[in-house]
Amino acid sequence: QSGANLNTNGKITKRGSKHLRRALTCAAGIAKMYDPELKKYYQDKRDQGRKYREVLCILGRKMGFRVFAVLQRGTPYEKRELKEERK
Question: 57-69 pLDDT, tens per residue?
Answer without folding.
Answer: 999 999 999 999 9
